[in-house]
Amino acid sequence: DGRLRLSRQGVIFKNSKTGKVDNIQASELAEGVWRRVALGHGLKLLTKNGHVYKYDGFRESEFDKLSDFFKAHYCLELAEKDLCVKGWNWGTVRFGGQLLSFDIGEQPVFEIPLSNVSQCTTGKNEVTLEFHQNDDAEVSLMEVRFYVPPTQEDGVDPVEAFAQNVLSKADVIQATGDAICIFRELQCLTPRGRYDIRIYPTFLHLHGKTFDYKIPYTTVLRLFLLPHKDQRQMFFVISLDPPIKQGQTRYHFLILLFSKDEDISLTLNMNEEEVEKRFEGRLTKNMSGSLYEMVSRVMKALVNRKITVPGNFQGHSGAQCITCSYKASSGLLYPLERGFIYVHKPPVHIRFDEISFVNFARGTTTTRSFDFEIETKQGTQYTFSSIEREEYGKLFDFVNAKKLNIKNRGLKEGMKQSYDEYADSDEDQHDAYLERMKEEGKIREENANDSSDGSGEETDESFNPGEEDDDVAEEFDSNASASSSSGDGDSDRDDKKPAKKAKIVKDRKPRKKQPESKKGKDPNAPKRPMSAYMLWLNASREKIKSDHPGISITDLSKKAGELWKAMSKEKKEEWDRKAEDARRDYEKAMKEYSKADSHRGERAKKKKKKQEKQVKGKGDKKGATSKSSSSKSPAKGMSDSFKSKEFVSSDESSSAESKKEDSEDEGAASPPPSSEDSASGSD
């Protein structure tokens, strides 16, 4: 935005934001064009020296006034030209001054100021223009590619002619003067190939057989010098933003690989005074040493950034890195003082301050390795897999020391112990899963043998009176009385069973008792009152969900905690009063419940005493009966003496009449029981 002033002397525009002033003399104006643009109407002015100025935001009604002014003072006809809006992507390119115009017929589609072009590269029938980044705009156009069809003219390459027209006016980095120094045939991992690196004062030039890259030092973010795990090679990594581009591929990292044995003698293409003045002792005119040291030293001096090296981390083998796989490729992960860097395909640099949490996971294919997962605060997840389990302890201690959030801390500390326990053993010597399978197989075989030996429909759980609850014990007693009355042969078989059955029941005991333990809670008991926070949460849950659609349960709990913490004291007191009322109601309900419970307990005690009294009277009667009939049926007498409570209580109603007769003839000798009575007793 700014202010445009038209006077007889010329056109003046002042930028409101920067205060920059464009002053165009009237004598320099060559052409004026009026056209409709996105923001109403616009004015395009061309000068005699090829510069183009465009101003937008005019109203349509202002055309007549401007046209008259131009005629009167600048002797120019303000021409009306419309932009082409057909949407076609083929047409004619015209170069006029500092402007590249893409036209369809006589109408322009778009124009590119060539001063904005930073790079121009050619391919087969193709020209690519790259642009300087505009820091004032949220979104910048960075690249345009033109397809140039081949022509029949001999000796003229249309692609080269196009590129030369662009380069003649473009603001492209030009190699003015000689390079400070040149490193020949360096091995480059990304982009792959061998390149000559020419060091210039403001940029470095990568010259390869296929591609050339010019990298300004202002785009270099960080420098890394990393030793290879084999201790014979070195990685030199240059982090770039914006990245260098080749077609659709972006290279955010430039990775050079050096052998430690390679030496070089280097002479800078500057005199000693210039070297001393520019680099202040960081470089000298003549230097010699390892190739990687020379490259890193020159880059550090020119880029003026520190070189990052691995910190105090040492892996299991003594190396400062960990062998692992990222995506489909194997590489090296370097834990640094302030982040992790993975080389080399694809290179990844993750700073500690952008990490949300890390996670240690078991390897998916084998137990001899584990996975290391990193999730950033933006939600991006990186998984480094196939890390040897011997590296676990060192990596865990490093992550712990850097105070990174470990997602599964408790689980992994247990895992660490198990790793240490089997660290020196071979995988074949101990297999916990195999041992467990063998144990379960043995138990299944024993169960199958025991079930084939048993008779009838009796299950394992039905025979364990000493270890089961009262209900099960009573059930067993009644079964035993029934089975023993059937004859001596059956009782002998039953006597042999307990030794085998008890063993199997012992194994199954936890499964049997698990549901029994839940019977202690009375469903009719009053529920405990909620706290003030829980009452508020239940009332506010739907509102929080509507304010944050798609929120997870854990995030909802966190958000609720933050809202409750930020709540004023007066509002909290309101919920405290509600919680206090709920507590009073609970105490009142508990008193009523306890009173009712005590009444139920008294009734149960009276009933139990009555049953015991009846059982005692019945036992005395049956004792006298068994004496008179012991010579005839000893087995029958034994079965009567072992009758359970359940059997006795169920028999009371059916023998009510016989009780009345017994009570009337109390003191007189009772006659021996009839055959019908004895039959009912055995039932």
UniProtKB/TrEMBL annotation:
Q: Kindly list the places in or outside the cell where this protein is found, as annotated in its UniProt entry.
A: Nucleus, Nucleolus; Nucleus; Chromosome
The residue ranges marked as DNA-binding region are 526-594
Gene name tied to this protein: Ssrp1
Question: Where in the sequence does UniProt note compositional bias of the Basic and acidic residues kind?
Answer: 513-525, 590-601, 612-623
Q: Which GO terms describe its biological process?
A: DNA repair; DNA replication; regulation of chromatin organization
What is the protein name for this chain? FACT complex subunit SSRP1
Q: Where is the HMG box domain?
A: 526-594
A Pfam short name: SSrecog
Where does the record place the region Disordered?
A: 439-533, 590-683
Q: Name one GO cellular component term.
A: FACT complex
Comp. bias (Low complexity):
478-488, 625-641
**What GO terms are given for molecular function?**
DNA binding; histone binding; nucleosome binding; RNA binding
Ranges of biased composition (kind: Basic residues): 498-512, 602-611
The record's similarity note reads: Belongs to the SSRP1 family.
Outline what the protein does. Answer: Component of the FACT complex, a general chromatin factor that acts to reorganize nucleosomes. The FACT complex is involved in multiple processes that require DNA as a template such as mRNA elongation, DNA replication and DNA repair. During transcription elongation the FACT complex acts as a histone chaperone that both destabilizes and restores nucleosomal structure.
**Annotated Acidic residues bias:** 455-477
Q: Which InterPro entries match?
A: HMG_box_dom, HMG_box_dom_sf, PH-like_dom_sf, RTT106/SPT16-like_middle_dom, RTT106/SSRP1_HistChap/FACT, SSRP1-like_PH1, SSRP1/POB3, SSRP1/POB3_N
Which keywords has UniProt assigned to this entry? Chromosome, DNA damage, DNA repair, DNA replication, DNA-binding, Nucleus, RNA-binding, Transcription, Transcription regulation
Which PANTHER family does the entry mention?
A: FACT COMPLEX SUBUNIT SSRP1
Entries under PROSITE patterns matching the protein: HMG_BOX_2
